[in-house]
């Protein structure tokens, strides 16, 4: 208890007054010299953080807009590509149909030409046969006229004419 009477807990009014004055002067000096720059620096830092947050938010909003525009352009490009592919298919189908139609016309033309050539060859063959028959008939008639023929000779002449006709065919 001796420490209490003489020691640390004993209040000296003069020392107390000087301690309060020193504390007040120290606070005043700190207020004038250090407090204002510290507060200004903290305020500037807070303002910078607020600005960075606003810039980040603006950048996010702008990025979302750009992304939206990009998605729309991609969708449009996809639609355009689908249209181009569809038009290409239509054009290919049209070209195929034109080629098939042209081939059919050419085939029809070739068939018609072949038929005409066959008909012409047939007519020529018939004409040749007719000419040969006329010649044979004339020959037979001249032989019949030149000799008096009995039925056996007549039969032989007809047979001979028929044999000549068979060789012509």
Highlighted features:
mainly alpha, 169 residues, single chain, rod-shaped
Helix/sheet category: mainly alpha
Enumerate the spans where pLDDT stays under 50 for 5 or more consecutive residues. none
Proportion of residues in helical segments: over 70%
Shape: rod-shaped
Q: Please tally the helical runs, counting DSSP H or I stretches of 4 or more residues.
A: 3
Written as H for each helix and E for each strand, in order along the chain, the element string is: HHH
Radius of gyration: 64 Å
The major β-sheet equals: none
* Spatial gap, N to C terminus: 164 Å
Strand content: under 5%
Q: What is the averaged pLDDT score? A: 85
β-strand number: 0
Descriptive report:
This protein has 169 residues and is mostly helical. The chain has a domain of 116 residues. 93% of the residues lie in helices and 0% in strands. It has three helices and no strands. Helix 2 runs antiparallel to helix 3. The termini are far apart.
What's this model, at a glance?
The protein is an all-alpha fold and 169 residues long. The chain has 3 helices and no strands. The N and C termini lie far apart (164 Å).
């Amino acid at each position: 208890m001796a420490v209490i009477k003489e020691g640390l807990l004993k209040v000296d009014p003069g020392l107390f007054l000087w301690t309060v004055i020193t504390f007040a002067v120290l606070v005043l000096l700190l207020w004038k010299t250090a407090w204002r720059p510290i507060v200004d620096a903290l305020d500037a830092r807070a303002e910078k953080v607020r600005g960075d947050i606003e810039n980040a938010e603006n950048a996010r909003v702008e990025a979302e807009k750009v992304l939206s525009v990009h998605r729309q352009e991609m969708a449009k490009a996809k639609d355009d590509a689908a249209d181009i592919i569809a038009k290409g298919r239509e054009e290919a189908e049209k070209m195929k149909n034109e080629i098939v139609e042209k081939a059919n016309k050419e085939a029809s033309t070739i068939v018609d030409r072949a038929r005409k050539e066959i008909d012409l060859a047939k007519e020529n063959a018939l004409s040749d046969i007719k000419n040969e028959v006329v010649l044979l008939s004339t020959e037979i008639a001249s032989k019949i006229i030149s000799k008096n023929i009995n039925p056996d000779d007549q039969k032989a002449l007809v047979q001979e004419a028929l044999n000549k006709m068979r060789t012509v065919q």
